[in-house]
Specification:
Order of helices and strands: EHEHEHEHEHEEHEHEEEEE
Bound molecules: S-adenosyl-L-homocysteine
CATH architecture of the largest domain: 2-Layer Sandwich
Number of strands: 13
Structural class: alpha/beta
CATH class of the largest domain: Alpha Beta
Amino acid sequence: MTGWLAIAGLGPGAAELITPEVSRTLAEATDVVGYARYVARVPERPGLTRHASDNREELDRAGQALRLAAEGRRVVVVSSGDPGVFAMAAAVFEAVEAGDPSWRNLDIKILPGISAMFAAAARIGAPLGHDFCAINLSDNLKPWDLIERRLRLAAQADFVIALYNPMSSARPWQLGRAFELLREELPETVPVVFATAVSDAKEKVDIVALKDAIAGRADMRTVVMIGSSRTRMIARDGKQPFVYTPRSAEV
Ligand code: SAH
């Protein structure tokens, strides 16, 4: 049997935001590998083995998936959102580069998904309509100094900034510090969007001005978007405003 490895994005949460390509590939798989919370989103069925692991074991998980594919299994590694955005695709390539040379010849495919920032943006309007960047606020794999530098330069460059992994019990102060620093660089009225559990039953989306942004509003399932100086709000009676960034930047 010829094995293969697909690295698939399950989107932000709702089943209808999983692409048909990912659904079809999951239907052909013998094994699903991933963080327990994401593996749980793939329904059990006969012939499918689900391998759930802890969140911090990305490299081990990638190695396990590659070994299974090399043995002839049809393996899907699952991530939330898009697998290439702060997720398993890069971990798999780290394992390929450092691991068994035969892994380079495996049939490896990346199946895109809807990343949290795109799902969140779609809820409120078009905040990413002009130039933007995404920053992972976790300092597990990079020094905090580098994150501060990137935040400051991104604000100076007037990018809209999407912050992934803004908060966890192990990292309680980082987002507060990020807001402090961004207030030094940006107008205090810039809109900040807290989008939590987008497309799930527990979805909650709040829009505040940068001066009123409180880090405690975010949790592990929140993506935080900070507008550029040009990001605008369109007020609506009794409804959440639209937030958008015009396409052009006048000089
Ligand atoms: N690959 C994923 C990101 C994984 S990092 C993607 O492309 O979306 C995990 C972070 O993603 C979380 O801390 C949170 O910032 C964000 N996230 C994932 N799902 C989300 C959702 N449904 N709503 C809001 N943010 C989400």
